[in-house]
Amino acid sequence: MRAVILERQGEPVRATTLPDPEPAPGQLLLNITACAVCRTDLHLRDHEIEATKLPVVLGHQIVGIANDGRRVGVPWLGWTDGTCRYCATDRENLCLNAKFTGRDIDGGFAELTVADERYCLELPDELPDDQAAPLLCGGLIGYRALRFTGDATRLGLYGFGSSAHQICQVAVHQGREVYAFTRPGDDRTQTFAKSLGAIWARASNELPPEQLDAGIIFASAGELVPQALKALAPAGTVVCAGIHMSDIPSFPYDDLWGERSIRSVANLTRKDGEEFLALAPKVPVKTTVTTYPLDHVEEALGDLRAGRFEGSAVILPTTD
Ligand SMILES: [Zn+2]
Ligand SMILES: [Zn+2]
User: Pick from 76, 138, 139: which is nearest to 105 by CA?
Assistant: First the structure.
C-alpha cells in the first residue's frame, strides 16, 4: 500500500510503499477514504511531543470502509486495557496503558489500516467522508472540552482552527454566546468566526466587552492561559484542549481568585464519540475543508503550521 511515514521527528514526512497490514483477530481492515489532519500530527512531526514508535504512519481521524462492508471512523483512542483504575471508573481516556492511533498504532495517512473493532465509531449516513473525518478528533475532543464548561453562557474560544470552528457551531446551536480570539491581525479568521455565529471576534490579547463564563484554549501558546483567565467572570473555567502547550507564564493570584479554575482535557472516551457523532448532524456541524492527496501530507502539515487555511485539512488517499 501507499503510505506516508514519519521516520525522524523534526524532519518532513515522506510517501513510501509499505506491506499491506493484516488484521489480527478483533481488528477490522479498512480501505481509507479520508483522514483529517490534527494539530497533534504536527506536534509529532515537529517533535513538540515524543513519538513512541518510528517510523510511524500519522493520522487519527480516519474514515474507511471495513472488510465487513461498514463505513466506520477510527479516532485517537485506539486501545485500552479495560482493567486499570481509570478504565474501571469510566475514564478510559486516562487509561494507564492506552494506545493511540497515529502514534502507538499506525494511522490513517495511508491507503489501508487495521483498527480494533471495539474502538471504531459508527458514522452518521448524512455525513460525507471529508465532513466526517474532522469530527473524529477536533470535533469530539472539542466537544469533551465544551462539556467541561458546564452551562457557561458566554464562551471564549482561543485559536479558531479545526476544532474551534466545529465547536463554535455546537455552542451557538446550544444558545451560547461565542467570543472568538485569534492571533493579532488575523482578520480573515475573525471574519470566518463571525460567519459561523461568533458574536465577537478579536485578537487574543484583547479583552471581551463582557466577562466570560468559560474559555476553551485550542492553540498551543501557553501565554493564552493567563490572558483567558483575565477575561473570566468569577467561578469561570479555562479549559486547555490541546495535547501540547508552551510554558504558561506566571500571573497574579488575583486572576485565579473568585473560584476561577484552569483544567486540561485529555483524549476521549468512546462515549464522547458516540454522543458527539449523534449530535453533529442535528446542529448541523458544517466543516470547512481543504483537501489534499496522500502525497501532500507534508504540505498539509506546513499549511496548518502557517495558518494558511480556515477549518480542517483532510487527506484523501484515493485521489492523486
Ligand atoms: Zn485502562
Ligand atoms: Zn487529534
Answer: 76
